[in-house]
Amino acid sequence: xxxxxxxxxxxxxxxxxxxxxxxxxxxxxxxxxxxxxxxxxxxxxxxxxxxxxxxxxxxxxxxxxxxxxxxxxxxxxxxxxxxxxxxxxxxxxxxxxxxxxxxxxxxxxxxxxxxxxxxxxxxxxxxxxxxxxxxxxxxxxxxxxxxxxxxxxxxxxxxxxxxxxxxxxxxxxxxxxxxxxxxxxxxxxxxxxxxxxxxxxxxxxxxxxxxxxxxxxxxxxxxxxxxxxxxxxxxxxxxxxxxxxxxxxxxxxxxxxxxxx
Amino acid sequence: xxxxxxxxxxxxxxxxxxxxxxxxxxxxxxxxxxxxxxxxxxxxxxxxxxxxxxxxxxxxxxxxxxxxxxxxxxxxxxxxxxxxxxxxxxxxxxxxxxxxxxxxxxxxxxxxxxxxxxxxxxxxxxxxxxxxxxxxxxxxxxxxxxxxxxxxxxxxxxxxxxxxxxxxxxxxxxxxxxxxxxxxxxxxxxxxxxxxxxxxxxxxxxxxxxxxxxxxxxxxxxxxxxxxxxxxxxxxxxxxxxxxxxxxxxxxxxxxxxxxx
Lengths: 261, 261
Fold this sequence. Notes:
The structure is a homodimer. The first copy, chain A, is of the alpha/beta class. Chain A contains eight helices and eight strands. In chain A, α3 (75-82) links the parallel β4 (65-68) and β5. The longest helix of chain A is centred in the C-terminal third of the chain and has 31 residues, at 161-191.
């Protein structure tokens, strides 16, 4: 495997798109886009200026690295469908929640190339320092994947299946659940005719502090200081939203039980 | 009330300290620091280069604005103790959770000056754009408090007691609860020997997106897309932490029920 290895992007969604564009921009050798449906394949092939196809059988036989960026539940079947055409290529998926071993029945050289970021259609990710979790069955492939991560500007982390599974749960807390807390905050303000913008400085500071220190060290608030009067007042104010009231109680309890903070 | 009105800071904690320093830095007329215990009063008085005292009775009789930055549960008693010496001053507290009316038995001119930020000992807050929620019994005092908020570089928001109470709940979700989610994420990584640093880019992007759009619009993750396989896998991975498992379930349920996202 060399910097000139022929890369085929499998999939044409957000992760495939951002990875394909970055690989191409960094001069790496993306040679083809394959995707089950033609529309997105054509679009991404066009963006990368490489041939595309919606037929697995058109996979280039000389491909070196198959970068599977497909839905978690399609990884196994896609690998099975591609294996006959390129049995000796390195194949990796990009999933946090899926073990590398779902690929092992089909490919000898399998692994994972999981960029730990939330990719959006409309935003170009900051690749500099972006953690890419890599894993491979063969040591030489692991070295190659680490190099590729660094070529993208990212930081390579060797992370095994068990670690990656937990990392993915952690990412749900750090991304999805924090965002849901913000959604509730926004809704509560809206009910009072106040804009979410009012919370921007607080939120910016919250994250700056968590990054500068450690979230466990900077926990504050009524639950942390055992301020029962405020806790009761807040629960009463959430009476119209039983879901959020239950969340408030559960989160406060967890803060109070937390041996880490 | 004028920009030269004589300001007395009551309290010597984090909020008192940051407000006192900023008022002084902006050339406003802080004339005294009063605090129930002498040590912190002396420290803040020294920092501001103004007289200090631990005796309420030493309150300057010509004070125009008493800025009460004391614990929520001490606001009423402190106002009661100060009222005899300066019954005609404007008195405001800095609390999100406390109605302005706790001051009304003691002062005719009462109000709130609540800076919506999480103040730390070791960090200087960004005052530019910082939301300051103001409220006052008398219209002229409200105008004065709005001016003071702007003098500090902040943005004045006229917010009544009911709005401020809900805003405070929202701030708990946006600050304390997001931080707790990050604490759990950090702990999960630590168990796998991985550093929290790995989540920094994801977290930065999460917040950037929530600020650029609206958190309700950018919710992602297994709960949002109804990915039952991943939800079950994640719950199983949290078996060793019943508290976090329960939180994961409750947050996922709330995301799925949320009519806002």
